Amino acid sequence: MLTPEQYAVLKNEATERPFTSPLNNEHRPGQFSCAGCGQPLFSSEAKFDSGTGWPSFWTPLENGVSTREDRSLGRTRTEVHCHHCGGHLGHVFDDGPKPTGLRYCMNGVALTFAPK
């Protein structure tokens, strides 16, 4: 069962308000997964504080996510989806840290966290 906010983000590509996710302050070792289906998406080792107000990662787990072009705001962005269920997670930008230079900016409500 998804909450109304999870459903809005995962199924209708909404965006949660910045700085509202408790996962912004999650710094324990563990794994972030899709709130819709449980697919493993990101390791805590790839998480960093981007200052944007959303949980951010510099790389996903192998076969965790898929991407596609998004032109919904009149500009081209890269949308990130769960590779398994297709749920909307957020967007990826090319202003992240080394070694990838990417910032996977994810909606916290679209994720769950399991500590190691």
- How many domains? 1
Secondary-structure class: mainly beta
The largest β sheet comes out as: 6 strands, antiparallel
- Tell me what the CATH architecture is: Beta Complex
Beta-strand percent range:
25-35%
- Given the C-alpha coordinates, what overall shape results? globular
Helicity, as a percent range: under 10%
Number of strands: 9
Q: For the terminal residues, how far apart are their CA atoms?
A: 24 Å
Describe, in plain words, how this protein is organized in 3D:
The chain has one helix spanning about 5-10, and strands at about 30-35, 40-45, 45-50, 55, 65-70, 75-80, 90-95, 105, 110-115. The protein is built from one helix and nine strands. The chain has one domain: Peptide methionine sulfoxide reductase (Metal Binding Protein, Guanine Nucleotide Exchange Factor, Chain A, Beta Complex), CATH 2.170.150. It is mainly β and about 120 residues long. Helices cover about 10% and strands about 35% of the residues. It is globular and about 35 Å long. The strands form two sheets. Strands 3-4-8-7-6-5 form a six-stranded antiparallel beta sheet. Strands 2-1-9 form a three-stranded antiparallel beta sheet, with no helix packed on it.
